[in-house]
Amino acid sequence: MLSINNLCKAYVGANLFKNFSLEITARSIVGLTGPSGSGKSTLLRCIQHLENIDSGEIIVNGKAGFIFQDFQLFPHMTVLDNIIYAPVKVLNQPKEVAKKAAEDLLQQLGLLEQQHKYPAALSGGQKQRVAVARSLIMHPDLLLCDEPTSGLDLGSIIGFKQLLQQVHSMGVTMIIASHDINFLAQIASRILVLKHGVIVQDLSKNDFSGSLDLLKDALLA
Amino acid sequence: MTLIEQVLFIGRGVIVTLKYTLSALAVGLSVGMGLAILRRQILFRWLVDSVVSLIRGTPLLLQLSFFYFAVPGFLGIRLDIWHAGLIAFGLNSAAYVTEIFRSGIQSVAKGQFEAAKSLQIPTLLLWKDIIIPQVLRNIFPALVNEIISLIKETAIISMFGELDIMRRAQVVAASQFNYFEALCLAAVYYYSLIFIIERVTNKIEKTWYAKY
After folding, report:
1. Is the pLDDT of residue A153 over 90?
2. Which chain A residue has its CA at the smallest distance from B121's CA?
3. ipTM strictly over 0.95?
4. A50, A76, A134: residue with CB nearest B117
5. Between B179-211 and B165-176, two packed helices, what is the crossing angle to 10 degrees?
């Protein structure tokens, strides 16, 4: 699904990634954790072409969607318009078709009643679900989530976990960058610990399903 | 001239004042918006900043005189006061609008550009549907100030013989040997125009800002 080969990327003058390589298989949920400044967000942004890379290659088999930490919904558009804008204007779908798809999505996400509201009137958890819907309606094969649980209350985090599982069941591969290792351990099938642009631990579900010790050790080392 | 005749005579200048104001605003908004967007390209930044600095750094009266007297002589063309005024007021307004737009664009979160890019929204649509509506909302009060300034600045056109509010007040004053009444009437007209604009834009602002 995703192949990163010999990625080099300098950030604020220093080499963050130096010949960084990574393979991610389709339909997996990969957690990406590490201390601040380890390169989690930058890696996601490079995959989505939001950052220019210095050298190397990033190959995504299919379309990638991105969920921003602060959601970045368009504040001047209603929830519905936020979701249908790209399908209508970018994919040239008839408005009615896009609207029907958006309403189905909103129904699944429990947001149908909020469809005519502006983002400012929504809670953090609701905004996040709208951001997910806005990405999903473009049928991404890979969903990149940058710190999705920061700033959310416990109820919203649980809701978001269920939502991601729902998205995964649609066959979407996911990479989730987060500090929250408990959250990642519950949802991910693989967790990568990143430090200074290097993967210091690559753990499979078996390594962290029973205990988070290996993860904690890697983070504190 | 009775007082009523004076009121009506000066009042006809409102159309001329508004003609210059609205035309200059149209030029100022479109050119200013274009320059502010163009300025984001490093290649054009120096050029746009220089033009803005030059226009903001010279008096409007000089600019108007330049386009009315100097440019036609230099290029060997004839430019009437309407066209010279349109260019001078329009460009002068564009310089200020460029700066207003620049700050407005800066006030839009970088993430909005990135979110649009993530959704593969093409550049033209990004600006038209995502960025400019947010910029306009952010800069609306500053744009209203620009309109108000323009209305008052157009009074300079009276020095070139255009029969705007100011010129008509001068004509009345000269014919009646009474400046007090004529200038008071001109002030009432200018103030009324600006008062209406303030009220209307306040209403627009309230409705707009209440939405989101």
Report:
1. no
2. A90
3. no
4. A50
5. 160
